[in-house]
Amino acid sequence: MTPITDAGKAGVRATVFHHLAGIAMAPTTKALSERGGFDLFIAADAPEWVDLEDIIVHTRGNRGYLRVALRLLASAGWLRQRVERNGRLVSYALTEEGRTAVPWAPPLYSQAVAFLPKTLFLEDALFGRQDDALLPSLQDLVAKASGRWDIAPQVDPVAAKIADQVRRHLDGVLVGPLMVILARAGVLARLEQGPVAVAELGGNAAMMACVFDLLATQGWAERTGDVVELTPQGAYAAQIAAAYGVTVSYIPMFTKLNALLFGNPRIPRVDESGIETMVDRGTNVWGSGGAHRTYFNKVDEIIVELFNRPLHLQPRGICDMGCGDATFLAHIYSVVRDRTERGAVLDQHPLTLVGADVNTVARRASKQTLRQAGVRSFHVINGDINRPAQLASDLEKLGLDVHDFLHIRSFLDHNRPYVPLASYIRGTRRSRSTGAFAHVGEEILADEQEENLVRHLRRWAPYIGRFGLIALELHTLPPDVTAANLDKTPAVAYDGTHGFSDQYLIELPIFLDCAREADLHADRRFQAAFPPSKLATVSINFFTVLARATRSCPRTSTPSRERRGLENGQLNNPITRSPDYPITRFSIQRRPYPSRYPCSNAARYSRL
Asked: Residue 47: left if φ>0, alpha if ψ -120 to 50, beta else—which one?
């Protein structure tokens, strides 16, 4: 097989990003169109800008999720978003791309969206645990994909751009779930080794042949008779198939999008048997686990530095809040054991691991993971990201001190249950985030969300001060930045999956400012952003605690030193300075933070 070039890899990644965007865009656009969400934009007497209030009245939509939907279209490049009066007045205008797409894209999306609920049963259909009821529907859609969804070639550059975008969105609704199924079943791994006869892959041969015909439309597979072979592009797509996992895991939520947008948004998130109704958790864990391996190297650097210090300066253990199945925790243990000086003396100075998770199934899986990893000393406990004081109390009952631990968490802060703010007057802060935030359909304005994040991080400050916090986090991008880089970012999909599921993605520079305001200092040596540019949607930070800052200007306009370092290219993995965020100042007075915190101080923080 001819090796794929860097340009070829970039092309595959661009296709994957558009596929992911399609899983969010197709059902969202269809739902808006059917409810008249575009009527006010395309009427004969339509103004250039349409107020959100008018759209809500016209569609009778749920304000919070409607804002998420419209911001999603702005990220896709179909709308412009204008926010005034600190987020209290929002309006939208069609872009040239939007004027082209809105009249004819929704009917095309309807074809693929009708198949979305059936994708939940594709695994059974592929591997023979169900009859061939899905085969005719899949064959029909694969035939449409082979015919480029009957979208005629376009001469106009904007029309050609939209035709390509919509076509790849439609492909994504089919390709995404199937790539996940093939990857999890080990089929892609077998194909990476060379050509394979379809019959040797097991399962439903007719369905499997149909699937490979679909991959052939992407240029990822070639089928000669009964034999299937991946192309170089297909082999690379197979290697990064986990990138589909998280977005595909939210398909159950997208099948309920009409209710979220225009019905009763208080859909039960968990059924009577305890199974989540909005996300396929198994697929989500698989997808996120595959993606997280990319970030392990940077985390490993922090772990090696900490556990090569003199013993009296090392943590007694590591506490992972939101540990999931403890794969991340087990990995970190292996790094300490195999790559640090502490690893050589674990018999004399054992490392205690604590996995905390609110989910019973996750806790059960964590115990199994840590046992299999050979961890000698560990505890798995119930843990709530919003209740650090409770974590400290639970550890104390085990004879452990919360301050003796290095704290870690991965992609959890944005997924914290929303706790309404006490004693906050709306509009007190000057909001900077472009995000759209909702809680069970109700809108959360950006200034409230930023204040909420500051208070959340500040609650943790007294408990992580001695050895710090390693935080991996997911971020959004300003819609205009996303729209200008659709081939380079998965942000469109993230805006949909996380916005409709009450998760709160904040732009990275603003996240760092909020952390600094909460007295958390990010160590520049270990900062990383992925990708290392203004398109960063993932960050790694090692936070330690600062003393209370002396501010030289109001907090609503104060950036962190960390952000200035990012913008000025002073980091190992810098973020390019961006005009999308206001530039402001912060002066600080630092002093050593105590290894123990007075009860009064902890109590003060815990009430915030």
From this structure: beta
**Residue 467 one-letter amino acid:** F
Residue 442 has pLDDT above 50, yes or no: yes
Non-local (6+) Cβ contacts of 12 within 8 A are 4, 233, 236, 237, 240
Please give the Cα distance from 275 to 284 (Å, whole number).
13
Distance of alpha carbon 22 from alpha carbon 165, whole angstroms = 9
Question: Residues near 566 by Cβ (< 8 Å), separated by ≥ 6?
Answer: 508, 509, 512, 527, 529, 574, 575, 577
CA 391 to centroid of chain Cα atoms: 25
Q: 126-184, pLDDT tens digit by residue? A: 987 666 789 999 999 999 999 999 999 999 999 999 999 999 999 999 999 999 999 99
Dig out the tokens for 333 from the structure: 């243990």
pTM of the model: 0.88
Give the DSSP letter of residue 570: -
The size of the chain, in residues, is 608
Question: So what's the pLDDT on residue 592?
Answer: 35
**Segments making up each domain of the chain, as ranges:** 6-38+102-279, 281-314+317-400
Is pLDDT at 556 greater than 50 in this prediction?
A: no
As given in the structure block, the two tokens for residue 212 are: 């490979």
Whether domain 281-314+317-400 has CATH 3.40.50: the reply is: yes
